[in-house]
Design a protein that fits this description.
By secondary structure, the chain is mostly helical. The chain contains 8 helices and 2 strands. The chain has 2 domains: about 90 residues, 434 Repressor (Amino-terminal Domain); about 60 residues, Arc Repressor Mutant, subunit A (Orthogonal Bundle). The protein has a two-stranded antiparallel ribbon with strand order 1-2.
Length: about 190
């Protein structure tokens, strides 16, 4: 008598389940590898290094083609090599790894070309209402701009295009959306 339905003791049913679990694990591993690669590429670009530059900097320890494969997520990097690569980039090793499992980028890419702006005028009193740590960093940065410019009117400060890159980094957003984020925080002067 043949039993056509699978039972829990049927080896084919457990191998199907383990196959599904392995497939899910493999997909998670692939996705994480892609995110590690994005992180490696982003940091290399922030350092303004080409793949060939890293190969030369590392005395050919990191071949351009292999580093490119790491960045594309086609190849996994060992912990030891990741540690050495962090040394060449002069960053802590943990900065080469993604911080979260969300789809939000871990690194803000400030190397992209942002639309040219004349500047955006910030209401300095409103900056005091932005919660820490964002608010504290933003206040310090804007204070520094005021000192550099000798601009102490205390009410408003125009943030120029070059300053906007740092503001974007402080706010944890891409430069293209930094002004929108400042508006969301109600920091942009009404005339802008």
């Amino acid at each position: 008598m043949s039993n056509e339905s699978s039972s829990p003791s049927d080896p084919s049913s457990s191998s199907d389940e383990s196959g599904e679990q392995a497939s899910e694990l493999d997909e998670a591993t692939v996705q994480y590898g892609l995110r590690v690669g994005e992180r490696l590429r982003s940091i290399r670009r922030q350092k303004r290094l080409s793949l060939q530059d890293v190969e030369a900097l590392s005395s050919h320890e990191f071949k351009a083609s292999v580093l490119g494969a790491y960045e594309r997520g086609e190849r996994a990097i060992s912990v030891a090599r990741l540690h050495r690569l962090a040394g060449y980039y002069s960053v802590p090793v943990d900065q080469l790894l993604p911080r979260t499992t969300s789809s939000k980028p871990d690194v803000v890419d400030l190397t992209s070309d942002a639309p040219m702006l004349n500047g955006v005028t910030i209401q300095l009193e409103a900056v005091k209402e932005v919660p820490a740590p964002e608010g504290e960093m933003l206040r310090r940065y804007l204070d520094m701009i005021q000192v550099q410019r000798g601009d102490f009117n205390g009410r408003v400060l125009t943030v120029r295009q070059d300053d906007l890159r740092a503001v974007a980094c402080i706010l944890g957003v891409e430069i293209e959306v930094a002004v929108g984020r400042l508006r969301d925080l109600k920091l942009v002067h009404a005339s802008d």
